[in-house]
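Risk register update: the risk of archive-format incompatibility is retired. Evidence:
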Amino acid sequence: MKRWLWVGVLGVGTVAAAVAGWSWWWRGANTIDPDDPRQVAAGRALYAKYCAECHGANLEGEPNWQTRKPSGELPSPPHDASGHTWHHADEQLFAITKHGMARFAPPGYKTAMPSFVGVLSDSDIRAVLAFIESTWPVEIRQRRAAMLKR
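Archived output:
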């Protein structure tokens, strides 16, 4: 084969490999995978550092989480299967975690849920959500998938 043809084949092959690698990385960096042990382990550590103080070390939330405090705020809800977290799509959970609840609540809504912009990266937030989802029983994960029509 002529030299210029080999150069062309090598160039196309290199570009194809780069695109495939980037695509694989992008999917991995932009997914929430409760079955990925590395993502779940990272999320567990981040949850303990940034979330457990309000949502409980065991994802149990604050007591009486559905009854407003005297301040007008709702207590931090549980993220285990007893709460409502699993009723929400990943994109919504990601947005609330990243930007805080106030951005999505009606005017005058009182919340202590902060924004994590500048604190946690998008990848960190996805890891936290993967950890939370990994704790849900199989039947809850199946109900959620059906409910969200995944």
